[in-house]
C-alpha cells in the first residue's frame, strides 16, 4: 500500500488509442454530414448534383481553362495569319511604287541634264523620251488607294499624277524652267511616294522580317538621294563645273546622307555588304560612285580637261555619267529586290506556320469541346451514382456511428474511473503526462476493522459481495463509498481489498479546500459505514478506521499495461500511518491537518496525544469528531 517516491516522466511510453479512434466519428460535425447524406434519399439526380456543385466545379474549371487556352491560341494564330497576309500584300504594293520611284528618279536626272545643256541636245532628248515611257508604264501599274496619296496637302490619284507629269514634261521640252525647279518637282513626287510606302507598309510580328523591312526602306531612301546626285552630276559635266556653290553644297550634303542610309541598311542586313563586295569585284568603276573621295577626284580630273572638249563631247560625258550612276543605283535596286524577295519568303513561311497553327488549334478546340462534353456528362453521371449509393448506406453508417459513440462514451467513463479526467484527456491526444508536484494535498486512508477475521470466516464470494455493497453498489444514503465521494472535491486513488485511498488537491489543485473536503467526506463515510450489518453474518456490524494527513506530494501515471494514477511522497506514508495507528470508528488526523481544519473553523477536533508513529517518531495527533454546522449532505439525506 505504501509507495516509494519517484520523479520525472512516470509513463513516457503509454498512449491511449482506443478512446481517440472513435472521437472523429462521434462528433457533431460527422453527425451533420451523415444527416445531410440521408436527406438525399428522396432527392432527384438534378437536386443531388446541385447540392454537390463543388464537385462539378472541380472538373468544369480545368475544362473551361483548357477551352479558353485553345480559343486564345486559335485567335492568336488567326491574327498572325491575317497580319502576314496583309504584310505580303503591302510589300507587293510597295514594290510597285518603288519601281515607279526608280523611273521618276531616272527621268529627273535626264530632264535636269537636258535643261542645263547650253544647246538643244537631240541625243539627251531621245533618252528622256525612253525614260518617260518607262515611267508611264510603271505609273499605270500602280494601284493607289481610293483617296490617292497626299502631295503638298492635296490628295492625288494616278490620273492626277499623269496629268501633272505631262504638263511638267512640256515645260521641260521647251526648257522654260530651271534645274532647281525641275529637281524640286520630281523630288516632291518621290518623297511623297516614299512617305506613302512607309505609312502603308504593315510589318509583321517577327523581328527578323522587321529588320529586313528597315533595310529595304533605308536602301530606297539612299537611291533617291543618289538619283538627285545623278541629276546634279549631269549639269557638272555639261557645264564644265558646278552651276552654283549651292548646287555643289547640296551634292555634298546628299553624299553624306546617302552614306548614312547605306550604313543603316547594312546594319540591319549584313548580306548587303557581301553583295556590294561582289559587285565591286565585277565592276572596277563602282568604287568611284560609292566612295565620296573617289567621286570628287573624278570631278577634279574632269575640270582639268573640260575646257579643251567640245559640246558634243561634254554631252557624251554627261550621258556616260548618267548611265554609270544608273547602273550604280540599279545595283541597289537589285539588292533591295533580293531583300524584298527574302521578306516575301519569310512572310510566306510565317503565313504557312500560322495556317498550320490555326488548323491545329482549331482541331484541338473541336476535340476539346467534344471531349469536355463527354467527360462532363460522364463525371456528372458518376457524381449522381455516387451520391445515390452513398445515401443508401447513410442510414446504416449513422446507426453504426451512434452505436460507436455509445461505446466510446462507455469507454471514456471506464477510463475516467481508472485515471483523472484531466490526465486521461492528455493521454488520449498522444501526449505524455509528466509527473506533477503538488504543495497542498490531503490524503485519506481507511480500512475495515477485523477484515482479516471476517475473511477467514466467510466464503470468497461473500467477501466480494460485501466489498461491492460497501464500495460501489448502493447510493450515498446507503453507505456507498464511490458514489459518496462524488459529492466532494476528492479523487479516489485506489482500492486494495478493504483499503480505500482518497486524495483532495490532486490532480486539480483546489487552494485551501483540500483538508475540509477530505474531512467532510470522512465524517460522512464513518456515519454511513459504522453500524453496517454484514449480509452473510446477521447481528455483526462493521467498523471503519480512517487516517488523514496533509502536505506536499508527487503524482503521475505509472505503468503501460495497466496504467494507474499514483501518489508518492512522505505525505502518503504519514497518512497511511495515521490510519494504521488509529482506532475503529474514529478518524485519526495529523497536527498538520488539524491546523488546516482549525483555520477553516467548522470542524470539532480532540487532541489524542503524542504517539510514536512508525518511521516518523513522536507526533501530536488528533481525533476528528464532528462538524460544528450540520453537513448539507446529511440534511438532504434525512429529508429524503
From TrEMBL:
What is the membrane topology listed in the Swiss-Prot or TrEMBL record? Single-pass type I membrane protein
Residue ranges spanning the membrane: these are 55-74, 356-381
> Which keywords does UniProt give here?
cGMP biosynthesis, Glycoprotein, GTP-binding, Lyase, Membrane, Nucleotide-binding, Receptor, Signal, Transmembrane, Transmembrane helix
EC number, UniProt record: 4.6.1.2
| GO MF annotations in UniProt | adenylate cyclase activity; GTP binding; guanylate cyclase activity; peptide receptor activity
Q: What Gene Ontology terms describe where this protein resides (cellular component)?
A: plasma membrane
Please state every residue range assigned to the domain named Guanylate cyclase: 442-579
Compartment(s): Membrane
Give an example GO biological process: receptor guanylyl cyclase signaling pathway
Family the UniProt entry places it in: Belongs to the adenylyl cyclase class-4/guanylyl cyclase family.
Query: What is the name attached to this protein's record?
Result: guanylate cyclase
